[in-house]
Amino acid sequence: xxxxxxxxxxxxxxxxxxxxxxxxxxxxxxxxxxxxxxxxxxxxxxxxxxxxxxxxxxxxxxxxxxxxxxxxxxxxxxxxxxxxxxxxxxxxxxxxxxxxxxxxxxxxxxxxxxxxxxxxxxxxxxxxxxxxxxxxxxxxxxxxxxxxxxxxxxxxxxxxxxxxxxxxxxxxxxxxxxxxxxxxxxxxxxxxxxxxxxxxxxxxxxx
Length: 207
Hints:
Organism: Methylobacterium haplocladii
Protein name: Phage gp6-like head-tail connector protein
Shape: elongated
Order of helices and strands: HHEEEEEEEHEEEEH
Helix content: 10-25%
């Protein structure tokens, strides 16, 4: 006889919250829909990371950059917690061991500076392996994920004919994973409360 138990779904690498927290926030009995809710958590978390153009979960990255001709490099993911290795044109550079010596230093945010060196102009001539992200996801970011999740996951509780609602200059249109807020003629695919938080975390620097 076939096992009726549905297959378990593992948490995604970008998940900003957990199944247990989501059940509690949504007011749903634990175990009601593990597969569906976990998929929704991962989908919303990935959408947040994509929209913000950065990773939030503490992760090691190996990346290459074009040298700019100056001694400062802005990392793609942040906040930086550790630098494992740095190579400039194939030559390894060590961490700065004293305030007056050569080497690299990071600021704990996203800036990597080198002293006694520079990042010479060139294509993909700088390689960095580093760890960045939050060991504990900030509470407002978790709440943004849960709010967006609630808007989409509980959509079946909305009247079928409710497709939009408006208050002042804000218009929210409902979609598969939440609303679309329209601000000043610009469409943003998320509820206004979520946008208010994520706009503070979005990486607006050119890629």
